Amino acid sequence: TWLEAADAYYEASIDPEGVDVVIPVIWGIDAVHGHANLTGAVIFPHNIGLGAANNPDLIEEIYVATARELRVSGHDWTFAPTLAVPQNDRWGRTYEGFSESPDLVGSYGDRIVYGLQGRVGEDDFLGAEKVLTSAKHFVGDGGTKDGVDQGDAVISEAELRDIHTAGYVSAIGANAQTVMASFSAWNGERMHGQKELLTDVLKGRMNFQGFVVGDWNGHALIPGCTVTDCPEAFNAGVDMYMAPESWEGLWHSTYDHVQSGRIPMERLEDAVRRILRVKINAGLFDAFVKPSDRPLAGDETILANPEHRALARRAVRESLVLLKNNGGLLPLDASKRILVVGDGADSITKVAGGWTLNWQGGGYPNDEFPNGETVLSGILDAVSAAGGEVIFDPAGTADVEADFVIAVYGEDPYAEFQGDVANMDFRPNGFDTDLLAAYQEKGMKTVSVFLSGRPLWVNPELNSSDAFVAAWLPGSEGAGIADMLFRTDPSYEFTGRLSYSWPKLATQVELNIGKEPYDPLFPFGYGLSYEDDGHVDTLSEESGLGDGVVTNKGEIFSKGALSAPWEIIRYGSPVAALPFESAGLVVSAYDRAAQEDSLRVQFKTGEEDFLIASSYPVDFSREANGAMELTFSARAVSGDAAISVGMGCDAEACDAFFPETLTEEWTEVSLSLSCFSDQGIDMATIKRVLIIRGQPGQVVGLSDVRLGEQQAGNAACGA
Questions:
Q1: Using one digit for the tens of pLDDT, what is the confidence trace for 110-162?
Q2: For residue 666, with 0-12 CB atoms within 10 Å meaning exposed, 13-18 middle and 19 or more buried, which class applies?
Q3: Taking the CA of residue 413 as centre, how many other CA atoms within 13 Å lie in the half-sphere pointing to its CB?
Q4: Which residues contact 73 (CB under 8 A, 6 or more apart)?
Q5: Is the preceding omega at residue 370 within 30 degrees of 0, hence cis?
Q6: Residue 170 neighbours by CB distance under 10 Å
Q7: Alpha helices of 79-225 — where are they, by DSSP H?
Q8: Containing H/E element for 406?
C-alpha cells in the first residue's frame, strides 16, 4: 500500500504534459525510532534510551538499518534526527532528545547522518540503501519556557548557541541534506519567521547548503499568517512549506506574492536551487525510476530481519539504566518462581511509546507488531530455559506466592504537546503500584521495570522495589529487558548511564548538569553495574508539591486529547480511536493551532448527537454553585451554523439543551453550569458532560472543552 502511494505521487510529479521541466518528488516520513509507521518494521528504543547507551557506533548502525527499512516502502526521506537538548522535562517531547547534555547530542548528530545518508566521497553516499535526513527542529525547541511544546525559548543568544545548536554543528558538518524549522519561538519570535537564524546563521555562518523544510503548518503560527498564506516564513528562509491540507491555497498565495514582488525572485530562486541540489544529490535525476522499481522496494524480508532485530535487542540492553539493586538482587535466578505484573509486560504498544504506528502511539494489539516480542515473552523464554515458573497477572491482584515479582509499568504513550505535564510526579496508570509494598510484606522480592519518556519522581515506587530499572521506551524487542534481568549471557552488563538527571522532588522540572541549583536524586551519568553496591536507602516520599495536587477536574478535551474520565461515546460505548463513522456521525481529528489538536464532527442525518461522557457520575454540584461554566471553541466548517449544546446525567430524559450559533471563525462558546442546574439536572451525577446536536450535512469544528470560571457577561443561557 505504501509503495502504491509512493508510485502515485512519483508518477504525478513526472507527468510531462503541460510542463517544461520534469522534477521527481521526494517523500518524507517520521521514522524517528525505526520505520515505526510501517507494520512489521523493527522499532528501536526512543532517543532518550539511546542517549543512555552513550554509544555513537550503535547509533550509526541503527540508522543504517532504519534507512534500509525505509527503502522497502518507497520512502527516500526521513524527518530525523531530532537534535533537541531538552532542559525542562515537563516537555512532551523530552524522549525525542538524546540528552540534556549538548556534548552527548553533538556526538550523535554526525553519526546519525552517516547512518542514513552515508559519507560524502564514499560509494554508498545517498545510494540505493540510503535516505535523506532532516535535522530537527532548528533551533531551541528543547529550551522553551516551562517546557511547553511549541512554546517560547526565553534564553540568551549564548545559551541558544552553546546548548541548542550542538547537534546541528555535527550533523551539518556531516552534510545533512535538510533541516526542519521548529514550531517554537525564540524570545517571542516564531522560528519559522526567524530570518536571522534560518538564513543568516544556518545558511550563512553554518554554511548549510541543503534546504529548510517547515514543520506541520508551522508557518501559520507566525502572527498575521494563516495556513494558506505566509510569505513571512518563505522570506525568512523556509524553502519548502509543510502544508499537509492547505498546500493548494498556499501555492496560489505564494505565486501571487512572487508576482507582486513581496517575495523577491532572488529568494524564490534560492529555494528552488536548494531543493534541486538535494534532489540531484539523492540521484533522482540520474534515472527516472518509480519507487516500486528501486532496489529494496517491496522486499519485506528486510523488515525486522534477524540482523536488525538483534541490533534492536542490543540497543535495549545498552539503554537500560539500573538505578537500584538492593542486596545484589539482579541478576535474578531464572530457575525460581516468578510473578510478572503490570500493563507493560505483555504490550508492545505501551513499551514502544508515541510515534509508533500512528502519531500518538498506543492502543494497538500485539498482532500489529508481527516481528516484535513483548517483555513477557522474553521472560518466559529465559525462565523456561532455566526450569523456572512464570505466573502472569497483569493487574497484580491474584493471591499467589512467588520468589520474585517483576512489575512492568509506566507512562502511557504520547507525542508532542499531548505529553506536556505540570510536574515530574508519576501518576500510576494501568497498574496499582501500591501493590509493590504488599508483595514485599509477603516476603517476595520486587523488581520494577519502569517505562517512561523522561525521568520522573517515583520515590514511592523506588522504596517498594528491591531493584529498579529505568527502561525508557525500548521498542519492539522487549526480550532485551529479560536478557538483563536474568543476565542470560555472562558477557551482558548494565552499561546504560543516565543522560538526564533524575529528580529528587516532583518540582524539579529544570534539573540539568552544569546549571545551579543542581541537587538530583541520581545525577547525570549515574547507573549501576551488576557488581556495584546498588543499595538505595529509604527515600522521602514528600514530593514537594504539597497536599491536594491533582489533575484539574475542569479539563475535558485539550490539545487533541481527552482527560479522564471523559470519552467520546458512540452507541453507548467509548470510541477506541479516531476517525470513526456511525450511522449518523463522522468524527475525525482536525487542525486548529496545531496538528490534530481539535475534532471535526460531521452530522450525516441530524438524528445522532455527538457526545463526550463518563462511565460513572461526576459531581459538579460545587462548580454549579460556584459560578463555573462549560466552555469550548467551535466553528461552522460547512452547513448550518445553528447547533444545540447539552449536558445531562445519564439517560436522555436528564438532558438539557441550549441553542448556539457558530461562525466560520473559531469562537468561544460558554454556558453557565447554573443554566443546566436551573433546568432540574442533578449536577452531582453528571455523566454526559457535552452533547452537541446538529443538522443534516452540518460540519462543526470543536476544540478546547473545559470547565472554567464564569466570565463577566457570560451568564446568559444560550445564544
A1: 999 999 999 999 999 999 999 999 999 999 999 999 999 999 999 999 999 99
A2: middle
A3: 24
A4: 2, 3, 6, 35, 38, 297
A5: no
A6: 22
A7: 102-117, 157-164, 166-173, 195
A8: strand 404-410
CA dist., res. 548 & res. 416, Å (int): 27
C-alpha cell at 687: 455523566
Give the integer Cα–Cα distance in Å for 591 and 259: 30
Q: In sequence order, which residues have a C-beta less than 8 Å from that of residue 612 and are 6 or more positions away?
A: 556, 557, 562, 566, 567, 568, 569, 688, 689, 690, 691, 705
What is the rounded CA–CA span in Å between residue 344 and residue 350? 6
Q: What are the residues whose beta carbons fall under 8 Å from the beta carbon of 316, sequence distance 6 or more? A: 45, 49, 471, 474, 475, 477, 478, 479, 480, 481, 483
What is the DSSP pairing of strand 585-590 with strand 598-603? antiparallel
| Rounded (10°) angle between helices 166-173 and 102-117 | 30
Residues 248-277 have pLDDT tens digits of 999 999 999 999 999 999 999 999 999 999
Cell 534560518, residue located: 198
Distance CA 633, CA 665 (A): 10
Task: Check if the beta carbon of residue 222 is closer than 8 Å to that of residue 230.
Answer: yes
Cut 0.90: pTM above it: no
* Averaged pLDDT for residues 404-409: 98
Instruction: Tell me how far apart the alpha carbons of residues 467 and 327 are, in angstroms, rounded to a whole number.
Output: 9
Q: What are phi and psi of 518, to 5 degrees?
A: -130, 100
In whole angstroms, give the CA distance from residue 357 to residue 237: 32
Query: HSE of 634 in the Cβ direction (CA atoms, 13 Å)?
Result: 27
Mean pLDDT of all residues in 334-348: 98
Residue appearing with cell numbers 511549541: 150
For residue 380 the three cell numbers come to 518466559
What does the pLDDT look like over 171-222, one tens digit per residue?
A: 999 999 999 999 999 999 999 999 999 999 999 999 999 999 999 999 999 9
DSSP state, 528? B
Listed residue (382, 316, 301, 393) closest to 353, CA to CA: 316
Rounded Cα gap, residues 444 and 436, in angstroms: 9
Give CA 440 to chain center in angstroms: 35
Active site residues: 215, 416
By mean pLDDT, which of 161-175, 276-290, 459-473 is the weakest? 276-290
**318 to 82, 474, 522: CA distances (angstroms):** 20, 10, 18
pLDDT in the model for residue 719: 65
Mean pLDDT to the nearest integer, 541-548 = 78
CA torsion 710-714-716-717 (nearest 10°) is: -60
671 neighbors 636 (Cβ within 8 angstroms)? no
